[in-house]
Amino acid sequence: MIIDFKLGEFFCGPGGIALGAMKSEFKKDDSVYRIVPEWATDYDYETCETFARNIHKAPLAECDQVIHEDVKNLDIASLPPCDGFAFGFPCNDFSLVGQSRGLGGKFGPLYSYGVKYLKQHQPKWFIAENVSGLSSSGEGKTFQLILNELKDAGYRITSNLYKFEDYGVPQARHRLIIVGMHKSLQLRFRVPAPTHIGFHKTSSDAICNPPITAESYNHEFTKQSNQVTARLKFISPGCNVWSENIPKEHRLNVRGAKLSNIYKRLDPKKPAYTVTGSGGGGTHMYHWSEPRALTNRERARLQTFPDNYIFYGNKESVRKQVGMAVPPDGVSVIFEAILKTLAEQEYSTNEPYQDVLKF
């Protein structure tokens, strides 16, 4: 017997959460538990195109399941009901990089639209994702406010700071994931135990095995100046632009920020540092042996997207989509734990990296 849980999604991005959900199939006795992406919405057109073509195998213009619209303009009451709901609400105002405006910023209040959907449609469970900086925004009061609103919507909450490199992602990407089980189910979600402690996947494993062919999608190289190429030749793997090995003529005339990722080359023996979706010179991530920036396909591999997952739009749009996505391989572990919770199947858990908040 196949037991499907229909998934609805706000701020869907290019499909990292949906792909992770689809990979999380779980079998118990004669039953197969699956999550099926039913509908999704995002405000960015090219992101929606990527989602529609990869998740629903149709161009956006022919795909009613993907809604290209600003969440603030949606009629939430008229949206389809679903069994599970996901919303990786934009993290810009909670990021530790930048001005961290919190709820007072442009993106900070967007979580409230997810709360409205939960109150209106009461799905069985939900998953919400954001940057680790959310927990410290407003001295922790912002995070507690959001958790209280999710609780008041009718859910038993478990939150955890996931270090995705401990779950098989070849990248040090740390994200707060909030999982809610509807109180009527009388179920408690438990944080799944890490799967890769002590044997992390490395950036070279992800990028080189198997090799990326020249014909691969989204594998365009960045045009670099001769100065940048020359500078990178003096930076060792795992080091950044403030390396003592760089001659004065190739150094940046910038004070401070010596621990930053500016012109930082990957260490091939470790997971990559966090893939980002924007930034100027020196922020594109850099190969450990070749003096160049990574291609979007290489960045997509660090995010665990398969090579047949095509991103649509120009090079900078694709960069943003890849950097803002949730790694499918990381979130699939969480979805599998959700399915096991629903099936009342035991699974391996451990203490989370921060206190689990349960209501």
Written description of the protein model:
The protein has 359 residues and is of the alpha/beta class. It has a domain at 2-198 and 327-342: Rossmann fold (3-Layer(aba) Sandwich), CATH 3.40.50. It is built from nine helices and eight strands. It has helices at residues 16-22, 45-55, 111-121, 141-152, 203-208, 226-233, 296-302, 315-324, 328-342, and strands spanning 2-10, 26-28, 31-42, 66-68, 84-87, 125-131, 155-163, 174-182. Strands 1, 2, 3, 4, 5, 6, 7 and 8 form an eight-stranded mixed sheet that branches. The protein is globular, with a radius of gyration of 21 Å. The two termini are 33 Å apart. Mean pLDDT is 89; it is low at 91-108 and 352-359.
